[in-house]
Design a protein that fits this description.
Radius of gyration: 33 Å
Shape: rod-shaped
Structural class: alpha+beta
Largest sheet: 4 strands, antiparallel
Distance between the termini: 49 Å
């Protein structure tokens, strides 16, 4: 009778509903998964691009270090002065120190991310031209490592602004196979590794 017709009608409605909803649910699931997959791939590509940019920037800084070292080694005036300062008059000593300090300052001006560039002659009679030409005796053996991370120039005393954590490279300077000094170049940690201190934001997606 009537009850059987109602049950039958409900079954028909349920079947029709399932016929519509199930494919729709499957379609929505596929769209959602594909959308998440595209977003994950996009974030991964962005992260890979950022890594590549960071590697290029680090290599650029290392190349700058090498270029400065080449410039110093090609500077016969400073190397001759470092190896035999006894042959210079007082006025000539002052002139050399002023000239070389100006050169180091110019390097820093055209390379804004450089934190410090300093020379340390091994000959103790060479006077200091603070803070760029200092006596080698200020350096410890740790200061003379070719590469140092989180380096602090503790020889700068109480001038805390001149000894912030940095990536530092210290290179030996030779003349006629004789060690005549050290070149020290530093870039602050946050400038050498900007992505570590100011990381880019990438959306994260979790697929279950």
């Amino acid at each position: 009778g009537y009850n059987r017709k109602m049950v039958f009608s409900k079954k028909v409605v349920l079947i029709n509903t399932l016929i519509v909803i199930v494919p729709l649910f499957i379609l929505l699931s596929i769209i959602t998964v594909n959308s998440l997959r595209r977003q994950v791939l996009s974030s991964r590509r962005a992260a890979e691009d950022t890594v590549q940019i960071n590697v290029s920037q680090i290599n650029e800084k290392i190349n700058t270090f090498n270029l400065i070292e080449t410039m110093i080694n090609a500077n016969e005036n400073i190397r001759m002065f470092f190896i035999s300062p006894e042959g210079y008059t007082e006025d000539e000593v002052i002139d050399v120190l002023l000239t070389q300090t100006t050169i180091l300052e110019s390097i820093s001006r055209i390379t804004p991310y450089l934190y410090s560039t300093r020379l340390f002659p091994t000959n103790a009679i060479i006077p200091e031209r603070w803070p760029m030409i200092l006596q080698e005796s200020r350096l410890t053996e740790n200061d003379k490592q070719r590469w140092s991370l989180n380096y602090r120039a503790n020889y700068m005393g109480y001038q805390n602004g001149l000894k912030l954590p940095s990536v530092c490279t210290t290179r030996e300077i030779y003349k006629n196979h004789k060690l005549i000094g050290y070149l020290q170049i530093a870039v602050r940690m946050e400038d050498f590794f900007p992505s570590v201190y100011n990381p880019p934001h990438f959306d994260s997606y979790e697929c279950k």
